[in-house]
Amino acid sequence: MKLLSLAESKSCLKLHFFCKGLILAFFFYSGNEDFKPEMLKGKRVIVTGASTGIGEQMAYHLARMGSHILITARTEAKLQKVVAQCLELGAASASYINGSMEDMAFAQSVVKKAEELWGGLDMLILNHVSPAFLSYFNSDVAYMQKVLNINFLSYVTMTVASLPMLKNSGGSIVVVSSLAGKVAFPFTVYYSATKFALDGFFSSLRQEFAMKNTNVSITLCVLGLIDTETAMKAISGVVQISAAPKEECALEIIKGGALRQREIYYEYLSTRIPLLIRDWAPNLLDYIIQRNYNVEKLKD
Ligand SMILES: NC(=O)c1ccc[n+]([C@@H]2O[C@H](COP(=O)([O-])OP(=O)(O)OC[C@H]3O[C@@H](n4cnc5c(N)ncnc54)[C@H](OP(=O)(O)O)[C@@H]3O)[C@@H](O)[C@H]2O)c1
Ligand SMILES: *[C@@H]1O[C@H](CO)[C@@H](O)[C@H](O)[C@H]1NC(C)=O
Ligand SMILES: *[C@@H]1O[C@H](CO)[C@@H](O)[C@H](O)[C@H]1NC(C)=O
């Protein structure tokens, strides 16, 4: 009898520690498994806009992890250099195809090339953007159409073309967006419109995938300012905020995709806090944002 109650109190103690551990684990890991670079070993990955910036860094990370990589952008010479570097870093294979994402036939041909190369696809990383600059909206509807094609419609086109392969592999779609796709900033009207569109399209599609048991994950990446050459040049003189490193940013995007997360925020606090303020005090957020701009330095 005594023995039994001892055993009972022991198992009660065990349960107590188990629950505590569960709660702690929830707080520290928010239910996610840990990322391991081996998760990307041998995986077949397309990275768009990989000739420079964050896309280039993603290609290098994937190469170190031993992935098969297909990169794309317009500038062939830069892509050739990135491919050579990827092979040196240990990519299972690396290829490129150059062309403009303004052209939907080209967007489709990138996916076709992956199919020819590998006969399947595990991850589609959509990252390219039309070069952005800061200026007042100048009412150019034709330009809006062009930027929508590059930053939004080509993402839709590539997603549609990839879906059969991604369904087959239980693959992932990774969409690189911006804080400017969740919060409105001034002087980025064209860019912001396309980034908000990505959230609408991919978040709605994610719901349908869940309801249809389509095993393709969609990760939307909400990035703050990152220290790429293009971004630094674009904001120079107009806004002063600190930029996060592109290498770490690229790794966080890949991790988010591999762990099949719904969204990633990088850097965490500098993207999450504005979103909190947006929902509770939008006028205050507008005020804070507007104070940050040196309007005299805008090019028009
Ligand atoms: N850097 C930031 O502060 C920041 C902040 C938030 C979000 N993001 C997002 O992160 C992603 C990468 O940004 P980044 O700063 O790394 O940009 P980036 O260095 O300017 O790279 C853009 C890439 O897209 C390609 N590209 C441009 N126009 C194209 C077109 N018409 N067709 C095909 N490819 C085209 C470029 O190559 P070619 O010129 O050779 O075509 C380049 O490889 C973007 O989605 C951006 O919105 C960046
Ligand atoms: C692809 O690269 C070639 C060679 O550099 C170039 O002539 C061509 O214009 C590029 N294609 C596009 C669509 O930019
Ligand atoms: C969905 O795909 C992932 C990754 O390929 C796989 O680990 C998981 O088991 C799949 N889930 C189902 C329900 O098939």
UniProtKB/TrEMBL annotation:
Domain of life: Eukaryota
Catalytic activity: 3beta,7alpha-dihydroxyandrost-5-en-17-one + NADP(+) = 3beta-hydroxy-5-androstene-7,17-dione + NADPH + H(+); an 11beta-hydroxysteroid + NADP(+) = an 11-oxosteroid + NADPH + H(+); 3beta-hydroxy-5-androstene-7,17-dione + NADPH + H(+) = 3beta,7beta-dihydroxyandrost-5-en-17-one + NADP(+); glycochenodeoxycholate + NADP(+) = 7-oxoglycolithocholate + NADPH + H(+)
UniProt KW keywords: Endoplasmic reticulum, Membrane, Oxidoreductase, Transmembrane, Transmembrane helix
Subcellular location: Endoplasmic reticulum membrane
Keyword match Membrane: yes
Classification via SUPFAM superfamilies: NAD(P)-binding Rossmann-fold domains
GO cellular component labels: endoplasmic reticulum membrane
Gene3D superfamilies: NAD(P)-binding Rossmann-like Domain
Enzyme Commission number: 1.1.1.146, 1.1.1.201
A GO biological-process term: lung development
Coiled-coil segments on the chain, per record: none
Classification via Pfam families: adh_short
GO molecular function, one term: steroid binding
Assembly, per entry: Homodimer.
Name under which the protein is recorded: 11-beta-hydroxysteroid dehydrogenase 1
Record lineage: Eukaryota, Metazoa, Chordata, Craniata, Vertebrata
